[in-house]
Amino acid sequence: MKNFLVEAEIMPKRGVNDPQGEAVLSGLRLLGFEAASKVRVGKLIRFQVAAETSDEARADATSMCEKLLANPVIEEFELEVSEA
């Protein structure tokens, strides 16, 4: 078994209201950063997975995201998998 580093970037789906993103944008504008726009707030989760292959680690990480880490109704995710 090898250890693989997984980075799961989880973001609100397009068209889903993002109140955190709106609050950040409002704060940036109040601070004078008028050039900022379309702020979206998500999360980045890093973890290790023990697996035989990168494909197996990706499959396990996908299952983790689908079952716990991301809300499939309002969020989407992208994975980066590399050897730890």
Q: What does this 3D model show about the protein?
A:
This protein is α+β, with helices and mostly antiparallel strands and 84 residues long. It has a single domain (2-83), classed as Mth169, Chain: A, CATH 3.30.1280. Helix content is 33%, strand content 35%. It has 2 helices and 3 strands. A 3-stranded antiparallel sheet has the order 2-1-3, with helices on one face. The longest helix has 16 residues, at 54-69.
Can you give me a brief rundown of this structure?
With 84 residues, the chain is α+β, with helices and mostly antiparallel strands. It is built from 2 helices and 3 strands; from the N terminus they run βαβαβ.
Which SSEs are present, and which pair or pack?
Blueprint: E1 2-12, H1 19-30, E2 43-51, H2 54-69, E3 75-83
Antiparallel strand pairs: 1-2, 1-3
What labels would you give this structure?
84 residues, alpha+beta, Mth169, Chain: A, three-stranded antiparallel sheet, 2 helices, 35% strand
